[in-house]
Amino acid sequence: MSQRAAGSRLPLPFPGRTQRVLPGFGLSLGISLTFVSLVLLLPLTGLVGQLAGLSLGEYWAIISEPRVVASYAITLGAAAVAALVNAAFGLLLAWVLVRYDFPGKRALDALMDLPFALPTAVAGITLATLYSSNGWMGQTLAPLGLEVAYTWVGIALAMAFTSIPFVVRTVQPILEDLPHEIDEAAMTLGAQDGVAFRRVILPHLWPALVTGTGLAFVRSLGEFGAVIFIAGNMPYETEITSLMIFVKLQEYDYVGASAIASVVLATSLALLLAINLWQGRFIRRLHGGN
Amino acid sequence: MSPLPLFRRTLVASAIALGVVAPVMAEERELLNSSYDIARELFATVNPAFKDHWEASHDDTLSIKQSHGGSSAQARAILQGLRADVVTYNQVTDVQVLADAGLVAEDWQQRLPNNASPYYSTTAFLVREGNPEGIESWDDLAAEGVELVFPNPKTSGNGRYTYLAAWGAAERAFDGDEERVTTFMRDFLGNVKVFDTGGRGATTSFIERGIGDVLISFESEVNNIRQEYGSDDYEVIVPPVSILAEFPVAVVEDNAERNGTLELARDYLEFLYAEETQRLLAGFNYRVHDEAVVAEFADQFPETELLKVEDVFGGWDAAMEAHFESGGRLDQLQRR
Amino acid sequence: MQRIGDAPALRRLLIGAAVALSALFLLLPLVAIFAQAFSQGLGTFWVNVSDTYTLAAIGLTLFITALTIPINLVFGVMLAWLVTRFAFPGRRLLQTLIDIPFAISPVVAGLVYLLLYGRNGWLGGWLDAHDIQLMFAWPGILMVTVFVTCPFVARELIPLMQAQGSREEEAAVTLGASGFTLFRRVTLPNIRWALLYGVILTNARAVGEFGAVSVVSGAIRGETNTLPLHVELLYQDYNTVGAFASAALLALIALFTLAAKAGLEWRAARREALA
């Protein structure tokens, strides 16, 4: 029996019929459903309403326009790179913050949340300033032949920046909760650091790492404010999907904007559902194994 | 530990917030002007002048509020319920959208002089010191190796003017030979280095990031930029043929009636045509109509032939449909 | 006892890499904001910050944030309690639904509210007829801010409460604890850090939200112009120093929040160590 079902004595499909131990089912269900309906679902009917007027053929024509399709590829590619970079960076930071003590650790820990705290437009303006050819970073990178601003790399950079906290903050608590014995045992047996990490630690972190990376990826798909300043916005080269939505809005084309937005929304929701299912399975396995 | 300290802090903050917001909400005659994004300083200068003018002949105190943003987004907000009394835009189409929705009088362009455009401008070039590429007119911009910066015509009215000016100038130069115009436009668009979403972004790219040889924008803009960023480092080039960029104004009758500000709103827009206001406007590098002021500022605005969108493209509606809508000329020219 | 990665050389290497990368990607942008804000001296910075419209924008932003936090705090706790303490059909779906704001681009989030409550929206006609102005007034800004920030508290609480299970709470109930006492004495102490972190994220995002707010705000100066919108406006209008001065304020609010969190954590850690 998994822990998560502990609230009900019997896991019947109709919860109202079982005697619950914990109080507050009615209250929390009522508040949650009201909130979700009013705040989340009701507004989405506006989006659905816009799409209702479209035939399937028209819908397809809008979302499969070559320039829009090119923007999907650019957005997905850059978001994937950003997410992978964050997976590595986040794992390193989580490890260092949990396992080591050093001066300035607390400040470093606090700094991790900066991308969430900073308005994305401010991040965009700042990154573009830093990485343009005469910015502090741009000047340093230019001699190496690396152009960041107004290229695909810039898009990935902005996406990576805005989603840094996801991996760090999902991996960190798991790493903290790992019992000492696990890696002490591995070390006593004489395994090397790298091997021991891969064999002993990583299997525990894996689900959190995937979750964090997935969240970072989803966040990057929808990012607009930070990216728009540092992307060159050239058709077929550096135009992201959010910009396509923005362009449609400028043309007073709510239907077109809604159609493209629905593609992004569906993709993101599918990914999030997958992450949630994965997370649930992991928790079950963890507790089932105990 | 509960998050109480944080909560208490936010409560205090909200009290402060109410204190700050409340005085702004005090009762007085109000007028809301919905305007384009780069007109903040312009109206910060014009509004106090109008306030004096109005209060001299009326008993009430007047407070003029400003809303600034991209002019399409601004018009969209009014369509969706923003209760602006007047609009002062840089795009005829954005006022027309409101007229089509019945919020602005159908004949708004006839209600005030000069197509309801109290000031106007044209599209001009900003080049770097000494004009190293020797840019004089539109055909120089399509030459190989010349790098251009101007905002995306898809997202910016400024960018649309640039596109139409280039097209109109090419049509004149090639005597309407469509194939040569198309080739020119393809080269011209191919020279664009960055497509920022708005005029400001393009300026930043050109000035602060050092991208491109030519920045194309409104004449008023390039002059302001040159003054702002040092007149020795840049030169303004006004091409011999360019486009007439109108800055249309209108009363949002529907809202003004509801707010009881019809008379005030009309007075405000008429005030933009008064000599003293026209002088203020010319100070911001806009071309104006008042003859006395035109004579005063003659040196500042070189003579140039200004094409009208109506004459070259058969009006804005036709231009939008043929060039800027999805699958239109612009999309075709950019297709690879 | 030796643990993985305890070798001094490796340790120094990893710490060095972490610090260097963080400085490059996180600290440098932060420094750049302040460098720009103060590029023309303290006086210019002060003139920009004490501008009437900047003050009004600060006030509005704090006001909206102060309303958003309690709303999402209550909702987040209720939802987390519901999905981690009870099994019922549709639980997983509900959990995914609250992620919608993560999945939706902020501009689209603003748009859907506008399409519903705006003049041409489904409810807009009725609201307009009754002279109720939601969009382009502070209620609209509050609504979209609540929308974009509503997953933060719940998302922080759910994994933790799931992992902790409900044995302690069940024991307390068996001992006769009532609902509120149970929550205050048993649940709250266990989830306080996650709760606090959720509040901090909500706070940060509510202060900084740009995309969604820009759609429904109308950007009336002194009335519906929030601080991030103010940054954008000043930037668009060539007042770079002014824009970065306001951006620096936002960064300061961010830093203050982060410091508050770090401080609280430190105090709690010390108390635990003493106990």
From TrEMBL, chain A:
Keywords: Membrane, Sulfate transport, Transmembrane, Transmembrane helix, Transport
Domain called ABC transmembrane type-1: residue spans: 72-273
Any single Gene Ontology cellular-component annotation: plasma membrane
Record's subcellular location: Cell membrane
Transmembrane segments: 21-49, 69-98, 110-129, 149-168, 208-234, 254-278
Major place of residence: membrane
Transmembrane listed as a keyword: yes
Gene3D superfamilies, per the entry: MetI-like (1.10.3720.10)
InterPro entries: CysT_permease (IPR011865), MetI-like (IPR000515), MetI-like_sf (IPR035906), Sulph_transpt2 (IPR005667)
Membrane topology (UniProt): Multi-pass membrane protein
Single GO MF descriptor: ABC-type sulfate transporter activity
Known role: Part of the ABC transporter complex CysAWTP (TC 3.A.1.6.1) involved in sulfate/thiosulfate import. Probably responsible for the translocation of the substrate across the membrane. Part of the ABC transporter complex (TC 3.A.1.6.1) involved in sulfate/thiosulfate import.
Record note on quaternary structure: The complex is composed of two ATP-binding proteins (CysA), two transmembrane proteins (CysT and CysW) and a solute-binding protein (CysP).
Family the UniProt entry places it in: Belongs to the binding-protein-dependent transport system permease family. CysTW subfamily.
UniProt name for this protein: Sulfate transport system permease protein CysT
Protein's organism: Halomonas saccharevitans
UniProtKB/TrEMBL annotation, chain B:
Protein name: Sulfate transport system substrate-binding protein
Keyword check for Signal: yes
Extent of the signal sequence: none
Source superkingdom: Bacteria
Protein encoded by which gene: cysP
A Gene Ontology biological process term: sulfate transmembrane transport
GO MF: molecular carrier activity
Gene Ontology CC annotations of this record: periplasmic space
Family as reported in the entry's similarity comment: Belongs to the prokaryotic sulfate-binding protein family.
Matches recorded under PANTHER family: SULFATE-BINDING PROTEIN (PTHR30368), THIOSULFATE-BINDING PROTEIN (PTHR30368:SF1)
Keywords: Periplasm, Signal, Transport
Keyword tRNA processing appears in the UniProt entry: no
Localization in the cell: Periplasm
TrEMBL record, chain C:
Gene Ontology cellular component list: plasma membrane
CDD domains: TM_PBP2
Transmembrane intervals: 12-35, 55-84, 96-116, 136-154, 194-220, 240-260
This protein's UniProt keywords: Cell inner membrane, Cell membrane, Membrane, Sulfate transport, Transmembrane, Transmembrane helix, Transport
Compartment(s) where it occurs, according to its Swiss-Prot or TrEMBL record: Cell inner membrane
One Pfam family of this chain: BPD_transp_1
InterPro entries hit by this protein: CysW_permease (IPR011866), MetI-like (IPR000515), MetI-like_sf (IPR035906), Sulph_transpt2 (IPR005667)
Summary of subunit composition and partner proteins: The complex is composed of two ATP-binding proteins (CysA), two transmembrane proteins (CysT and CysW) and a solute-binding protein (CysP).
Name the record gives this protein: Sulfate transport system permease protein CysW
Species, as recorded: Halomonas saccharevitans
